[in-house]
Design brief:
The protein is an alpha+beta fold. The protein contains nine helices and 16 strands.
């Protein structure tokens, strides 16, 4: 005779698939993917605000002064070159040789170039955005050796000694605050701007009037001063056979950039920095003179960037990258509680929880624009944790599970914040944290009924 208990189990109706745990898991997974769409819109919002900040910084820089790049001083001496052409007279069959003269230029770099720069920085605000500007006072000294044309076998009669000039290649001419005067040996020369026909070239030129280059001897000294308004960065090209630069500033977070780094004796404090460079001619692959035209030596420039070190928008973008992880882990917590406690959570309630998690990022970006990232993260995360915890009380009908959810969300948001702040160890810390979370989920779900 059959056991009545076995008979009742045989005729027990099966649970419909759409009410099974597997179906619920699939729906929660599909909802997680759908919520990536508004999360992507939030990421685009952060990018748009970041672009707006860059536009505002550019507007402030254009009004105050843009990057400063300086390449000089350089002695320029014109000389005459001849080109011969041979033609045949068709009537007489005689060979006629004609000679055409044209002018080219020789450029001579200084033997020594010393620069002492004092840079005073300031912050300019426009609405919610902030930009760094500076005023640099640069003192240049050095000496030129006598120009030598022997490498080109140019006759002395073809050298236009009396039409020599001194050239400086630079940017941001409109932000030079004082007249630039050069004392070269016994001569006093004034720099004047030279019109730049090239629309795609941002480097302009300053040039002195003519002087007789025959006065340049083996140790012809020079000196001049420049006062510049600029922003973002200050770059110099080491054209001296020996180039030494000393820079002092009140900016506490310098970013040394370019082809050469300062010496090890640099000092950086909360009140500013002091840095020194020394570049020899053997440290760069160009000589002390060039013929024809000046080469583009921008890749050999060095200097300092004056930028705000912590970009709130970059931190917001990094936080938004973990949005899908936050949604997935939060849904997983609710799903495990649902399976463990047999409490039904509707897909609409999952949707409300997911939207609350996405609202965290809009709160974060909006509060960050008016305060620090840390304060904004604290306020936004506290608001979202409180909202979801209170909402889960009405869903789960008790206080034990909502308390667990609140603690779990606090741990998750703290975990994400630490990863955002770390740079060198972000991957290591994140991998260990996710491994620990996976282990915890496996431990909790090891005895669950999934039918």
């Amino acid at each position: 005779m059959e056991n009545p208990q076995n008979q009742s189990q045989e005729f027990q109706p099966k649970t419909p698939f759409w009410q099974s745990t597997t179906a619920r898991l699939l729906m929660v997974g599909a909802l997680t993917l759908i919520l990536l769409i508004p999360l992507l819109l939030v990421d685009n919002l952060i990018w748009e605000r970041s672009q707006r900040k860059q536009q505002v910084v550019k507007e402030i820089s254009d009004k105050w002064g843009t990057d400063v790049y300086l390449y000089g001083p350089i002695v320029r001496i014109p000389y005459t070159v001849y080109e011969e052409s041979v033609s045949v007279n068709q009537k007489t069959k005689e060979t006629v040789t004609s000679r055409t003269a044209s002018t080219e230029y020789a450029y001579f770099f200084p033997e020594e170039l010393q620069n002492d720069s004092k840079v005073e920085t300031d912050k300019r605000n426009y609405g919610n955005y902030e930009s760094v500007v500076y005023t640099s006072r640069m003192d240049f000294k050095g000496k030129f050796s006598a120009p030598d044309f022997s490498s080109r076998d140019i006759a002395d009669a073809d050298i236009q000694w009396d039409k020599a000039s001194v050239v400086i290649k630079t940017t941001n001419l409109k932000s030079i605050r004082d007249e630039v005067r050069l004392k070269l040996g016994d001569s006093n020369l004034t720099f004047e701007p030279v019109f730049n026909n090239a629309e795609n070239d941002s480097v302009d030129a300053l040039e002195t009037g003519y002087f007789d280059a025959r006065q340049l001897k083996s140790a012809s000294t020079f000196q001049f001063k420049m006062t510049y308004r600029g922003s973002c960065q200050l770059l110099l090209v080491p054209i001296g056979k020996t180039t030494t630069v000393s820079m002092q500033s009140n900016w506490p977070d310098p970013s040394f950039t370019g082809n050469f780094l300062p010496a090890d004796d640099k000092k950086i404090t909360q009140k500013g920095f002091t840095a020194n460079w020394k570049v020899l001619h053997v440290n760069r692959p160009f000589g002390q003179q060039t013929f024809g035209s000046l080469p583009d030596l921008a890749r050999f420039a060095f200097g300092v960037k004056f930028v705000i070190p912590v970009d709130e928008y970059q931190q917001n973008q990094r936080a938004s990258k973990y949005g899908s992880l936050m949604i997935g882990l939060t849904f997983l917590i609710f799903f495990l509680i649902q399976v463990q406690s047999k409490i039904k959570i509707h897909i609409f309630q999952y949707t409300m929880i997911g939207l609350a998690l996405i609202m965290f990022y809009t709160l974060l970006i909006s509060i960050t624009e008016h305060s620090s990232f840390m304060f904004a993260y604290l306020v936004a995360s506290a608001a979202v944790i409180a909202m979801i915890s209170l909402y889960s009380i009405s869903i789960l009908k008790n206080r034990k599970f909502p308390a667990l959810i609140g603690i779990s969300l606090t741990v998750l948001y703290s975990f994400i914040y630490v990863i955002i702040q770390l740079e060198d160890y972000a991957l290591l810390f994140g991998s260990i944290g996710l491994f620990a979370i996976l282990g915890g989920v496996m431990w909790v779900s090891r005895k669950m009924e999934w039918s």
